[in-house]
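The data are quoted verbatim for reference:
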Amino acid sequence: MRQETFVHRHQAEWTAFEQWLDARGGNARKARAQRRDWHGLRDHEMPERYRRLCQQLALARRRGYSAVVTDRLQQLMQRGHGVLYRTPSPRWRRAVEFLLGGFPRLVREEKGVMLAAMALFVVPLVVMYTAIQIQPDLSSALYDPVQLAGMEDMYDPNDPRRALGRDDGTDVAMFGYYIWNNISIGFRVFASGLLVCLGPILSLVTEGVRAGAIASHLQAVGHGDPFWRFVCGHASFELTAIVIAGGAGLRLGLNLIAPGQRRRIDALVEAGRRGALLSVGVLVMLLVAAFIEAFWSSIGWMPASVKYSVAAVLWTGVFTWLLAGGRNRLHAADVA
């Protein structure tokens, strides 16, 4: 085989392998610049690709191809060996890298379902809040008088010594309760995606209606200030995590309904794998939310200005993390 034919046949494969090396090696700028030429290589394909590259290098040498070809293949082979056979990072480091970079990248990759989930949660919340502000009696149609009285008691502005947002219990006990409550909601929203998208839709709408109704009722009866001081801090993590869980559930349902060119089981497995990774990040976010809710949000004597300032920092931090996390280091899966 002539050298020109050999190079033409394998050029795209070498370029894709080089881009994968750039991404894995941290050369994100170069990998992004070459993104249009990416050929969809995934991490699990690379050992086989590397073996083929070694075979192609041996073949090029045996046929006496020019140094331009053999030197390039030699360089790719050495770089590939360094990446594929290097000592893996400690598990704790990989976990941190995933939370800081991999998780927000996954969220951005699923932009469509995440925006849909946000709309399914936020729109009912705003509509219900507005409706009860206009017609306060609507809250009685959603909750019985005993429930409404209990909520009003938890956010009584005339009892400043009382811990906000709880009936009783120590911070540690409430931390455990909040963990269970938050995680159960997140799991239900995600796992219900197996019900062909109806589960996440109903769960997100229900949670939005519930949140809007509670907030609007307390605002209407004059208990808004304690309520907003309680929820403003942990809401950044909790509500965002619920939306992300809903987006993962929608992806699960959509892959089940419309697998595209893939077999339905393959599409479902892929959605489940990505959903499981997203669930790890959601779990961490809900744990953080529970910690804030138990040990910070319930402090009743803290001035509102301090509570709102901390909440602004937390909301800014969450959005910055999700929108910018992992952009400085490109992974092969991000450009596939």
Summary: The two ends are 31 Å apart (CA to CA).
